[in-house]
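Encode chain A's predicted structure.
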Amino acid sequence: MSRRDLFRLGGAAAGGLALSGCAIPGLAKTVTPAQTRAEAARFWPKQKPTRQLSFANWASYIDPNHQSLKEFTKATGIAVSYSEVIEDDNSFYAKIDPIIRSGQATGYDIMVITDGFEFVDLVELQEVVPLDHAMLPTFSKNAIPSFKRSTFDPGNLYSVPWQSGMTGIAWNTKYVKEPITGLDALWDPKYKGKIGMMQDPQELANFGLFRLGIDPDHATEADWRKAANVLSAQRNAGFVRQYYDQSYLNALSQGDVWITMAWSGDIFQQNQSTGNNDLQFVVPAEGGTIWTDNMMIPKGAQNPVSAMKLMDWYYRPDIAAIVTENVQYIPACAPVRAVIEQDAKRKKGANGQTQATLKSLSSSPLIFPPQAELRRTRNYITPKDPKTAQTFKNIFNAITEV
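Encoded structure for chain A:
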């Protein structure tokens, strides 16, 4: 299963749960950016270089032969123990949270966490180490600017992106002949019973708000309820065939649904695997969602200096390109596209990809979305307060549980 398969299956199962850490009264407190930077200034001068680190990631979410890690070890002398131990954010957080709170080391120096409820828990409960950006010069130079302005971690105080993707609309051109540009299509009577929507409450919330012209970044609880009403009306009118997890992709490919909410990487990979472009994808004119998987350092990490070096390593264009050519999600390193274009000209990919695949990658707006499109995307709504977070989940889970 791909990284998104596992994430969404786990996310769907955890959708009705309270926040794992923040549900514990009295533990969470909001830390200001100034306090975070002061903590980083106290922490990092005390840390010493080491020659090892442990990296926790999702399955099939790096170049398969680990060339990028081998080159890191060759360049730095730091040996990397790499583990594919994250099946979903919720279950992984449930394992590490009590360890960190007890003052023990998790055994990992870097972990990849999706923006969302668990990310907020880690930050609010101060279970991750604030970063020293003086140790991230390559990130500073090469990161795409929009990835430095996320709402879930402004200024990258605790994280730097690993890979990213978008939620938009996909349609099967065998059944939908006109180009799709906006959200009206998901409410169009001519597709009644052939429309797919996401089961995840964060995904649904953003699209309901976009439908009303409300920016999720500034939405209130009253706005959430208005969005839920719009989504409920869509369901009650019989427009929605089903609320999907990853299974939407098979439904779309087979014609069970003709048009659906979708993840950009899925559509690119499905077209690659079938050798055609039957499935099309667009970020709606009203807006789409961008999700980001992030490298973070858990509190108690034994090799934090090595972890910072690895974070910065993956913003070298040649190294980031190795990962992108294999996992085929959106890279946060700006020069990657030029590297893949050069690989296509040389007919030589990181792991033997064909020239056609490399050309398709470098030219795909699903992998390298235009800046105008990125500006229309928003992060998930993830309330920091546990009571508000549970209210949010209750509002949007009620749509899919009927």
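Residues 342 and 348 are 9 Å apart (CA to CA).
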